[in-house]
Design a protein that fits this description.
heterodimer, A: alpha/beta, six-stranded mixed β-sheet, four-stranded antiparallel β-sheet, 9 helices, 24% strand, globular, B: mainly alpha, abc type-2 transporter like fold, 2 domains, four-stranded mixed β-sheet, 64% helix
Chain lengths: 248, 426
């Protein structure tokens, strides 16, 4: 049996001012090396669950373990284990890609030499070498997405959380990003991905979980689920399981 | 340590690329110090250079009014504008409304005659009191019609009082001169010799003005000594706009989410900001002081005399900068939006500087304000700078100001930690 990248058991979360628990008794296990997709309609709890897994939100009950280590706020050893690509651009627009990587590399616990080496490597892979000394604020949306990705993986994380990593980019950039994510996965990084781009998700994810109103509806191999529910694609499966009503 | 270094480098890079922020932090204080010092200096130099225009309407035909006008001119405070004696009150006030002058004096028609009469009466009385026969023939009425002083309402009361004092002194001199002449004539039946008159009336006892300074130097404090330190402190504390806003901006940006998931404590970010902006405040002080020393003399302002204890000056500047930066961080931690940080930051600094004695000297404040004054960190900063710049003190002489400042800094830091804990940022 593969070791677990994420092991969530009996998870409960309480939104401020709400008496009831969201995610009451939620269990989820994601094996190391998986390309896992977490999907659901708006308000289903995807981003909240991701924030709980990365320690950005405090849980009310249960436990979350990443690669065997308990997630707690500002826990240095756990924070070294994963990288996060938030939906928003999470870097300093006034700085160049190289300067951003230098800063975030240091905050990720890397030494100067390692940062320099990894910066050159990542800028080359993601096609940013020619603009390494230009402030990011002059970049296109696609280039900014690549910078966002480079920062998240500078410290070779074991788990990479991706929240809409390709939103607003052109087809070329999307393919380049997805290809690089697959390459990272081959090298051993577990990908935990969430998006509303279901065709892209189909291409990237091997295993998925559908979540709605804080509950996991299904969690299995994508191909198994498609065949069980007699659907040809993820979008059909999604609508089949979550319905067509508007969500807030 | 490398994390801190990388964070400082990041902060310096961001700061150096923020042209508007840099203009705000360096340009505005320079303009502020220049403007305030120029204005204050012009008040200081009122007597010598910037004379106040004074309209004189002399309706008298005698010589004593001319004497009075010469005496007023001799004071050196006024630029006299004599107008025709038939000008009525309306014509004079119209000229004042047109800002031709802020003051006007009307000398009444019989001024010389009445003053001569009064002088003779006083001389006669004096002789009688000595047992001599005095001339009382012309002493039926000893009153002199008052002069009329028109003033523009924009003149502040304190300034008006000092002008009134100068005019009374001129009037007193003319009156005394005339009494003396009458007395001399009554006794000697000849006019008072000019030399004796000069000796009696113009040979006044001088007043030596000595600034009480610790280093024994007798450099007279000037507008620069007063204003440059005061407005340097103001500039340092105004870093709240840039730094407080930068913290709020960072907290609400996407980069902050990433920072919270990295294996580094947020306190490193705040420590870096503290070090970076402390450097900024010290640079602000250096630029403003250098301007006072080297630029001011070239633009007609008095030069800033640096204190003898330069290491003491560095320590005081360091403490002022540290306090300013800590205050800005505190505002940034508690503010939810950039508007809150900027609005509260700017208004609170203006209030703290007013309370701290930067705008009105603290010795002029009412007793009930004394406790409040001590709560303003700017007050302790100002006292420490004045101890060095005006009193010629050394570091040990201003320790009594630095210690309360240090206590305030510690309290601000405790507040920052409380804010960070409450907002779950550490």
């Amino acid at each position: 049996m593969k070791p677990l990248a994420v092991d969530i058991s009996d998870l409960g979360f309480r939104y401020p001012g709400q008496p009831d628990l969201f995610f009451a008794h939620l269990d989820l296990k994601i094996a190391a090396g998986e390309r896992f997709g977490l999907f659901g309609p708006n308000g289903a709890g995807k981003t909240t669950l991701m924030s709980l897994m990365t320690g950005l939100l405090p849980r009310a009950t249960g436990s979350i373990r990443l690669l065997g280590q308990e997630v707690r706020k500002q826990n240095r050893s756990v924070n070294k284990l994963f990288g996060l690509i938030p939906q928003d651009f999470s870097f300093y627009q006034e700085l160049t890609p190289a300067e951003n990587l230098e800063f975030f590399g240091a905050w990720s616990g890397l030494r100067r030499q390692a940062i320099r080496q990894r910066t050159n490597e990542l800028l080359e892979i993601l096609g940013l070498s020619a603009v390494r000394n230009k402030p990011v604020q002059q970049f296109s949306g696609g280039m900014k997405r690549r910078v966002n990705l480079a920062i998240a993986v500078i410290h070779h994380p074991g788990i990479l959380f991706l929240d809409e990593p390709t939103v607003g980019v052109d087809v070329q950039t999307r393919h380049a990003i997805i290809d690089y994510l697959k390459q990272l996965n081959k090298e051993g990084t577990t990908l935990i991905y969430t998006s509303h781009q279901l065709s892209e998700a189909e291409d990237l994810c091997e295993k998925i979980a559908l979540i709605d109103e804080g509950k996991i509806i299904v969690h299995d191999d994508l191909q198994v689920l498609l065949s069980e529910h007699r659907q040809e694609g993820l979008e059909g499966l999604f609508l089949n399981l979550t319905g067509k009503d508007y969500r807030n | 340590m490398y994390k801190l270094w990388a964070t400082i480098v990041k902060d310096v890079r961001i700061l150096s690329r923020d042209k508007v922020g840099l203009t705000f932090m360096f340009g505005m204080p320079i303009i502020l110090v220049l403007v305030i010092t120029s204005i204050q200096n012009s008040t200081f130099n009122l007597v010598n250079k910037n004379k106040v225009s004074l309209i004189i309407c002399n309706r008298d035909t005698g010589t004593l009014s001319t004497d009075l006008i010469h005496t007023i001119d001799g004071i050196g405070m006024f630029r006299l504008v004599q107008v025709a004696k038939d000008q009525d009150a309306k014509a004079i006030t119209d000229r004042m409304h047109a800002k031709d002058a802020l003051l006007a004096i009307v000398i009444p028609p019989d001024f010389s005659y009445q003053l001569t009469t009064k002088a003779k009466k006083l001389a006669g009385k004096a002789l009688n009191s000595f047992g001599l026969e005095g001339d009382t023939l012309h002493a039926k009425n000893g009153n002199v019609d008052p002069l009329t002083l028109y003033y523009h309402p924009i003149l502040q009361e304190s300034f008006r009082r000092s002008i009134q004092g100068a005019l009374y002194s001129a009037l007193q001199l003319v009156e005394s001169k005339q009494v003396l002449r009458s007395l001399y004539f009554a006794i000697n039946e000849k006019t008072l010799p000019d030399t004796l008159e000069n000796e009696l009336l113009n040979n006044r006892i001088g007043i030596n003005e000595i600034p009480v300074v610790r280093d024994g130097s007798r450099i007279v404090p000037n507008a620069s000594q007063h204003n440059v330190p005061a407005w340097t402190i103001f500039a340092m504390f105004f870093v709240v706009i840039s730094l407080g806003g930068s913290i709020v901006r960072e907290k609400s940006s996407g980069s902050f989410i990433r920072l919270k998931t990295l294996p580094t404590n947020y306190l490193v970010a705040l420590l870096s900001k503290q070090i970076t902006y402390l450097g900024v405040t010290l640079l602000q002080a250096a630029v403003i002081f250098a301007m006072g020393v080297w630029l001011f003399p070239h633009i007609g302002l008095p030069p800033l005399n640096m204190p003898a204890d330069l290491s003491g000056l560095f320590v005081v500047s360091f403490m002022c900068g540290w306090c300013a930066v800590s205050y800005a961080i505190c505002v940034g931690v508690f503010a939810q939006t950039q508007e809150q940080a900027n609005g509260f930051g700017a208004v609170s600094i203006v209030i703290l500087s007013a309370v701290g004695g930067l705008m009105v000297p603290s010795f002029a404040m009412p007793g009930s304000f004394r406790t409040v004054i001590q709560l303003s960190p700017l007050h302790w900063c100002l006292e420490a700078y004045y101890g060095l710049f005006l009193e010629g003190g050394k570091l040990r002489d201003v320790l009594t100001n630095i210690i309360p400042l240090f206590v305030i800094i510690i309290l601000i830091h405790l507040l920052i930690l409380l804010g960070l804990k409450r907002k779950k940022l550490i």
